[in-house]
Amino acid sequence: MAPNTLLVVLLVGAVAAPRAAAELPRLEHPPTKADGSLTVLAVGDWGRRGQFNQSLVAEQMGKIGEKMDVDFVVSVGDNFYKNGLTGVDDKAFEESFTNIYTSESLQKPCQQINPNVNKSDSLTLAVLGNHDYRGDALAQLSPVLRKLDNRWICMKSFVVNAEVAEFFFVDTTPFVLKYWNEPKDSTYDWRGVAPRETYIANLLKDLDAALKRSKATWKIVVGHHAIRSVSEHGDTQELVQQLLPVLKANRVDLYINGHDHCLEHISSRDSSLQYLTSGGGSKAWRGIFTPNTDRLEFFYDGQGFMSLQLTNTEARLAFYDVAGTVLHSWGLTKGAYY
Ligand SMILES: *[C@@H]1O[C@H](CO)[C@@H](O)[C@H](O)[C@H]1NC(C)=O
Ligand SMILES: *[C@@H]1O[C@H](CO)[C@@H](O)[C@H](O)[C@H]1NC(C)=O
């Protein structure tokens, strides 16, 4: 397929050395459907060797994925519990990813993004969560994992251009001050991150530049931590203060995150931004609900995942539980005036 040659992915670099301001790594995902539409699933907070209903959620993702003909899966982080991976040889990678997300629909070829494979890379595009930073964070970014399972692509911050939509993956863990100041019993792998202020300043600058350049109808930002959440962890103040202004200034449509182990949809009251939490990949049922000032459209304190269908004029999202039942669906149209 001709476009493949253009797309040898920028998977190296930006790994060990602290990031300087630069262009974010970009992946190209040309439309695979004749009408140019795109379908993705999003799941977070999942890697528990199938336990806590991870396997049930995975099975339903496979079924819904088949029905909807998904293009790729987004992982919003906390990929491997409890402390990320110990290294590239950690069996948790197979036990919590390869052996769990086994459905055919999650195995479709997607050679545009990874031309070095023959089959089975219906990609999971992943960011890191705070638990991933408690292990060998660089291991999850390693090409060695991609050799073990070629569906796996994890980077700290990057852009996926799918024409109708552009996805901006943001590494949110370094924003959260308490991981630096009060790590308690945890050790965070800040290789390539410290010093924090420089990393964040450069990341926000790069994100802003990438958003300004984007011509996609839909601009979607993905991070691990919530900006807005009514569940256990609540709003992430550092993101409200530092990331949110960049999203609003660039008219981002959706912000998708995990971290809280639940499903949520909150509408911003002073912009068109929708906050979506899809952190129900395994352990859930925290039993905490604290409303905030934005408009709560939907909250489910249990396991599940989210789908997103995008055309040039319409975005449609849905949340599912462990039985594959649609709990909430919502749509938005965009006119030519946009
Ligand atoms: C798994 O899902 C079932 C079916 O909805 C539910 O009854 C059970 O409590 C869940 N288990 C856990 C550990 O959350
Ligand atoms: C793809 O399959 C062909 C034919 O089986 C094989 O020669 C080639 O090495 C494979 N490429 C990769 C990257 O696995």
TrEMBL record:
<feature type="binding site">
    <location>
        <position position="45"/>
    </location>
    <ligand>
        <name>Fe cation 1</name>
    </ligand>
</feature>
<dbReference type="InterPro" id="IPR004843">
    <property type="entry name" value="Calcineurin-like_PHP"/>
</dbReference>
<keyword id="KW-0325">Glycoprotein</keyword>
<feature type="binding site">
    <location>
        <position position="78"/>
    </location>
    <ligand>
        <name>Fe cation 1</name>
    </ligand>
</feature>
<protein>
    <recommendedName>
        <fullName>Purple acid phosphatase</fullName>
        <ecNumber>3.1.3.2</ecNumber>
    </recommendedName>
</protein>
<feature type="binding site">
    <location>
        <position position="130"/>
    </location>
    <ligand>
        <name>Fe cation 2</name>
    </ligand>
</feature>
<comment type="similarity">
    <text>Belongs to the metallophosphoesterase superfamily. Purple acid phosphatase family.</text>
</comment>
<dbReference type="GO" id="GO:0005576">
    <property type="term" value="C:extracellular region"/>
</dbReference>
<keyword id="KW-0479">Metal-binding</keyword>
<feature type="binding site">
    <location>
        <position position="81"/>
    </location>
    <ligand>
        <name>Fe cation 1</name>
    </ligand>
</feature>
<keyword id="KW-0964">Secreted</keyword>
<feature type="binding site">
    <location>
        <position position="78"/>
    </location>
    <ligand>
        <name>Fe cation 2</name>
    </ligand>
</feature>
<dbReference type="InterPro" id="IPR029052">
    <property type="entry name" value="Metallo-depent_PP-like"/>
</dbReference>
<feature type="domain" description="Calcineurin-like phosphoesterase">
    <location>
        <begin position="39"/>
        <end position="262"/>
    </location>
</feature>
<feature type="binding site">
    <location>
        <position position="259"/>
    </location>
    <ligand>
        <name>Fe cation 2</name>
    </ligand>
</feature>
<dbReference type="Pfam" id="PF00149">
    <property type="entry name" value="Metallophos"/>
</dbReference>
<feature type="signal peptide">
    <location>
        <begin position="1"/>
        <end position="22"/>
    </location>
</feature>
<dbReference type="GO" id="GO:0003993">
    <property type="term" value="F:acid phosphatase activity"/>
</dbReference>
<dbReference type="InterPro" id="IPR024927">
    <property type="entry name" value="Acid_PPase"/>
</dbReference>
<dbReference type="GO" id="GO:0046872">
    <property type="term" value="F:metal ion binding"/>
</dbReference>
<keyword id="KW-0732">Signal</keyword>
<feature type="binding site">
    <location>
        <position position="224"/>
    </location>
    <ligand>
        <name>Fe cation 2</name>
    </ligand>
</feature>
<keyword id="KW-0862">Zinc</keyword>
<keyword id="KW-0408">Iron</keyword>
<feature type="binding site">
    <location>
        <position position="261"/>
    </location>
    <ligand>
        <name>Fe cation 1</name>
    </ligand>
</feature>
<keyword id="KW-0378">Hydrolase</keyword>
<dbReference type="InterPro" id="IPR051558">
    <property type="entry name" value="Metallophosphoesterase_PAP"/>
</dbReference>
